[in-house]
Amino acid sequence: MDSIEANQLASHRLTIEALRITAMNTKAIYAACLFTALNICTLSARAEADVTPKTYTYGTHLDIQKVVSLKQDATPSCGIVNARLTYLDSQGKTQALDYSKFSDDCADGS
Description:
alpha+beta; Spermidine Synthase, Chain: A, domain 2; four-stranded mixed β-sheet; elongated
């Protein structure tokens, strides 16, 4: 084998090794992203579970910085249902507010 073929073979081996390392790094990045996403979902669910909800009354001061979730009781027809608003206040603390509303199944408030 002459020196040109030896150099080409060495270059080819380095390219294959670089591709293998890149593939390993990509898998590690994907795994880290998945792990992070699952942790965020778990922490969000735990934060919602740890909050004692307050009941809305007319005049209740609302300090809503960001809405986390809106949930309502399941109902097959139009009517008044219980609902819960989970949100972050201006201090970044998770809060929950229970209130009554028309079901999402009501068309145009009728």
